[in-house]
TrEMBL record:
ATP-binding keyword on record: yes
Domain RapZ C-terminal: 161-277
Pfam families hit by this protein: PapZ_C, RapZ-like_N
Keywords: ATP-binding, GTP-binding, Nucleotide-binding
Organism: Thauera linaloolentis (strain DSM 12138 / JCM 21573 / CCUG 41526 / CIP 105981 / IAM 15112 / NBRC 102519 / 47Lol)
Protein name as annotated: GlmZ(SRNA)-inactivating NTPase
Gene Ontology MF terms in the entry: ATP binding; GTP binding
Amino acid sequence: MQIVLISGLSGSGKSIALNVLEDAGYYVVDNLPAALLPQLVTHLRGAGWMRVAVAVDMRSGASIAALPSQLEVLRETVSDLRFIFLEARDEALIARFSETRRRHPLAGGEVTVEEAIQRERDALASIAELAHRIDTSDLHPNTLRAWVKDFVHVDESEGLTLMFESFGFKYGIPLDADLVFDVRCLPNPYYDPRLRPLTGCDEPVKEFLRKIPEVGRMAEDIRRFIANWLPSYVRDNRSYLTVAIGCTGGQHRSVYLVEWLAERFRDQASVIVRHRSSARRAADRGAAQVHAPVEDKQP
């Protein structure tokens, strides 16, 4: 039986994640009190459901405090338990509540949206550490849908999921990062007009970076650091470790190094690769096409 738990901050995209799982055939339960998790699992197992997704968050009030202990109980009876925690920066959450005109569940009276977000973030801080965290601040909904699909299909036979994530410092450091490496000191393919529109996944950019000794030394230093400390994270019973590699725009150097590192760790852990800035640019291009004047579109 596979159980996928969804938690996180209000406005961070939990409904999107649940809809993805429901469309994939999961039995979905939203806003369940944590104390009822074991009974729910027992009931659904008896009814023949083998894939279940459950959202547990601050809407259930004080019962959220029982979630860590309920997780321990579930791990003894469920063979495949996965936990996703969605979060976002304050300004992104405030903008979403403003755009949708929805009320934050902890706001009201003299409590502002900003204060409600901080209260919720503080209350869920310890729970976030138990989960695979996804920072949705700059994510297009379609990107979040794809990342949730990738996560639930990961083979967890190795016990730890190792995620390599590229990003651009000009967009901010991802909240979900456990380890952050800054590679802005490396030569930038952006200044070559031929390479500027490409990414670190394209062969011309790879060839450019492979020829630079500093790039090879940086890549090997990061690989060695992760390899040396990965066993310690495993011994600490960590289920997820996110390694974020950042350059200026998240397009060339960080993408190349993420792909290089992921290839070298696939035989040591379950590996996920994400390119935050590439997904952001793709979403921006799609939005530009949707909003372009009809007369500007090519046949």
